[in-house]
Write a structure and sequence with these properties.
CATH class of the largest domain in chain A: Alpha Beta
Strand content of chain A: 15-25%
Strand order of the largest sheet of chain A: 3-2-1-4-5-10-11
Helix content of chain A: 25-40%
Oligomer: homodimer
Structural class of chain A: alpha/beta
Number of domains of chain A: 2
Largest interface: A-B, 93 and 93 residues
Number of strands of chain A: 11
Radius of gyration of chain A: 24 Å
Largest sheet of chain A: 7 strands, mixed
Distance between the termini of chain A: 86 Å
Shape of chain A: elongated
């Protein structure tokens, strides 16, 4: 029995470089089914649903949709709203009023819970309704999934940034600290390891939220590397915490505040990098210490997209439409690695994915907790897609000195 | 009369994405001349010359050189040394000892002066010697030149970053401030204007070192844009100064210090962005204000290179070898625009280029001093090369509301 009615697609949370592939995959696939009367898009995610702020995507040309698919950042706009039971009830009322029978929500783990509660509302009201969560997050922190759409492209950006930084710091030696997004999971920061091509290549140290960050150990690490190579490149997750789970940015600011800074606000995005840099300068006496906070560049940069990520983001959108409209099923689309490299998509119960955070497994982190393992590099490499550029070095022999003794 | 002897190539100052194209152009072209006995490369620029730290690039394979050409950041490493007369005398002594008859120095305007003084030393010693400066700088601030190698690729990075940021801030509205490199010239920051595709696209405000920055005017500008579009994307040069020529980062820190911060150090790279953001938060009460400092990402990012920039960087290296070895001339290679778009290379007297800084001409800046003109966009676009990606939007009609009145 075919369920006739409208489809609604929405996007939530932080944008990614490929989130519109999932949107376009869901829209184009939905438009193929005769029982689908219209395909709507909610503007600004769940916030737009409450306001009945819908676009009629049935009237978009296929060609423009294909162009939008290649454009980073949520074309339907996004929201940071995290609906509670009452909010979800309102969502359901709007969906029902518009005869929406299929709801596809592209988002992270908060979005899964929204899909679950709205679906529960429909069930209790005996309203025939299918709801599917389509995964996306640059943090790569959705459970069950081998990885999530959006991560591969952000990881490619981080990898290519550190490949360049590594060469830059070889040319003009010093200490460099790059602060990468990731409050609870270190996958994105860990992708910096792809820059490690030659044995002395950085990042020489990688600090992740999965391991407690000890400021004295950090100092020792940097000192050792700097003495060995005359330079040190460091990748650090914005979310690193101490043994008690307090974010380092807070802790250091408190220390420094008492020491010399005064009432510094926590709001500055460059704060963690600057503090880690100042700590090195003050304690190791190294003059050239530089820091960058990658910030928003890493999630929407135009022109650094993984084709594997594009492809998978498209397919999770298409699969959502297929599972819901063809098979009459609810759930969350999950990505499973089936080969080296191949994936398959499954439908997982929403409860299994909702509200949980995946962390870097132990086998991906070295025993010292200051770098990643070969296992991680093997895991991440295929996700970056084709065309990853390689750094090359001069290998010419040295010329004997004439004026000075060697 | 052919001048027989060795060639020495060196790289100075900040790395660029295409600086190795110039290196490889000079090396491969030099190797074609029978009067060239060897081609050396100085490690770490002029500092390496003093130490006689040379690589014998005659022994590099052409294939590896081609791979190095595609790799960003100075393959011979760089230096921040700015040689004085005494330093240049030492350089000359080393060059003479090694029978180096041709010297090619790839660098910014400081490097021109080094080439000039070393050449003067040779002339005074009646040592037959040719010295050529090969231009490079992401700042695009060399006089005589229409533009300089390295700028196009950095500009492409900035353009693509702001294209993504613009989409990101549309999806999750607020105020965004991106701080771009450029202490005295605003060319790199101005390249953000390429993101302005649709009439409401950012960056809505572009602040350059060529115009005094007034903090109250800035506040008014942001308020006006934010009220009009519900968001505001800002590109700002790190080198913006007040009416008296004092860098804003110093001035604001002083203000804020007296006000609430205490003894904040100037060293933090995120300082300017954070201060401009805090000023908006405090005075306009806008909650979501984000800032990124593009930092080192913009000059060595791997995978965002302009093919026009690559091509020209290669040719200025080749032309240096041709002017010196074929024509027995000294000078600085300069790039001249001859069509829309085509260029020609000339040899300019070192004195005309040395130590001078090119600024954005008035016709490239709008009358309010807070954006660029169409003339600038026309100037910069061809330098970004082919394959610049375009953002696309959904154009679907709105769906009438059923539950709520419009």
């Amino acid at each position: 029995m075919k369920l006739e009615g409208k489809v609604l697609v929405a996007q939530g949370g932080g944008p990614t470089a490929v989130i519109n592939q999932s949107l376009v995959g869901a829209v184009l696939e939905s438009r193929k089914f005769p029982q689908v009367t219209k395909v709507y898009g909610a503007v600004h995610g769940v916030a737009g649903i409450i306001k009945e702020d819908f676009l009629d995507l049935t009237q978009e040309t296929t060609h423009n949709l294909e162009q939008v698919a290649l454009t980073p950042s949520s074309a339907l706009f996004s929201t940071r709203d995290k609906p509670d039971e009452k909010y979800c009830k309102e969502i359901f009322n709007v969906l029902k009023a518009h005869d929406i029978r299929y709801f596809f929500y592209i988002g992270g783990n908060d979005s899964v819970d929204t899909v679950r509660i709205v679906n529960e509302n429909a069930r209790l009201s005996d309203y025939e309704f299918r709801a599917i969560h389509i995964p996306k997050t640059i943090d790569n922190d959705l459970v069950i999934n081998d990885h999530t759409p959006g991560y591969g492209s952000a990881a490619k950006f981080v990898a290519q940034a550190f490949t360049g930084i590594n060469l830059d710091v070889r040319a003009l030696p010093g200490v460099y600290i790059g602060v990468v997004m990731g409050r609870h999971a270190g996958f994105l920061t860990a992708a910096s390891s792809i820059a490690q091509k030659y044995p002395d290549d950085g990042p020489h140290l990688i600090y992740l939220p999965e391991r407690p960050f000890n400021i004295e150990k950090y100092l020792e690490d940097v000192k050792r590397i700097y003495e060995k190579y005359g330079r040190c490149v460091i990748a650090v997750s914005e979310g690193i915490c101490d043994e008690e789970g307090n974010p380092i940015v807070t802790k250091l600011l408190n220390n420094v505040e008492k020491d010399e800074f005064g009432n510094v606000q926590l709001s500055g995005t460059g704060a963690l990098g600057d503090l880690l840099a100042n700590y090195i300068k003050k304690n190791l006496g190294i003059k050239r210490v530089r820091t960058d906070t990658f910030g928003y560049l890493q999630r929407s940069f135009f022109g650094c997209v993984s084709d594997v990520d594009q492809h998978e983001a498209r397919e999770v959108g298409e699969k959502a439409a297929q599972f819901a409209i063809w098979h009459n099923l609810d759930g969350s689309i999950t990505i499973h690695r089936t080969g080296d490299y191949s994936v398959d998509y499954q439908l997982t119960n929403l409860e299994e994915v909702a509200g949980k955070t995946k962390h870097m497994p132990d086998e991906f982190i070295n025993s010292e907790g200051n770098n990643v393992t070969e296992a991680f590099r093997h895991y991440v490499l295929p996700l970056l897609g084709s065309g990853l550029q390689q750094a090359h070095r001069l290998r010419a022999p040295k010329v004997p000195k004439l004026l000075k003794k060697e």
